[in-house]
TrEMBL record:
This is Alpha/beta hydrolase. Keywords: Hydrolase. It comes from the Bacteria. GO terms for molecular function: hydrolase activity. Residues 25-171 form the KANL3/Tex30 alpha/beta hydrolase-like domain. Signal peptide: none annotated.
Length: 210
């Protein structure tokens, strides 16, 4: 594993790079939740599954977290910083690899909002926050509905932030537990690994590269 910082207009982002043991099939970029970090249980499970499936993985710490703040930056700043990280990795470590965007909670929202602009081949959502707890009228379904590439959502059955709907090109896997997705990390890893393998084995998927 290697760690590097990438400059953005909103301060440096920190990237934790995990390299697949052999030729990489693709690269997975994962963002963290609003008040959490890249060490979350579900992010660790997704990272292990992706490495086993032959993907490089980048865990991305947003500039506000690198600066030691817990309160998240506005969405436009999160998105801009993420896209700067994507551009830097696409020109360097992940050159010529298909890029899969992902993250947990707030990080999943960023991945959805930036998928088109960043050229994502697919999107992985861990604990997507459909709405604030107890406020279903303040939903964020448009962020999911705006994604035109394949999507996997891994969600806790008792998530107070709601349950996304399945749709064409969008899979939903429900696991025991709540928004933290700590109850069944092995299940989360299996869901992610299976989806990645099917995604990258589909006709027309990019061939492995170094």
């Amino acid at each position: 594993m290697g760690t590097t910082e990438i400059d953005t207009p909103h301060g440096p982002a920190r990237v934790h790079l995990h390299r697949a043991p052999g030729p990489a099939r693709a690269a997975l970029l994962l963002g963290h939740g609003a008040g959490g970090g890249v060490g979350a249980v579900d992010l660790a499970a997704a990272t292990s599954a992706a490495l086993a499936a032959g993907l490089h993985v980048a865990l991305v710490e947003q500039p506000y977290r690198v600066a030691g703040r817990r309160a998240p930056a506005p969405a436009r700043q999160l998105d801009a910083a993420w896209l700067d990280v994507v551009a830097a990795l696409a020109a360097g470590e992940f050159r010529d690899l298909p890029l899969i965007f992902g993250g947990r909670s707030s990080g999943a929202r960023v991945a959805c909002r930036t998928a088109a602009a960043g050229g994502a081949a697919a999107v992985l959502c861990l604990a997507f926050p459909v709405h604030p707890p107890g406020k279903p009228e303040k939903h964020r379904r448009a962020e999911l509905d705006g994604v035109t590439v394949p999507v996997l959502i891994v969600q806790g059955e008792r998530d107070a932030f709601g349950r996304p709907d399945e749709a064409p090109g969008r899979e939903l896997v429900l696991l025991a537990g709540d928004h933290a997705l700590k109850a069944d990390p092995a299940g989360a890893g299996r869901a992610v690994g299976d989806w990645l393998d099917r995604l990258l084995s589909a006709p027309g998927s990019a061939p492995p590269t170094g």
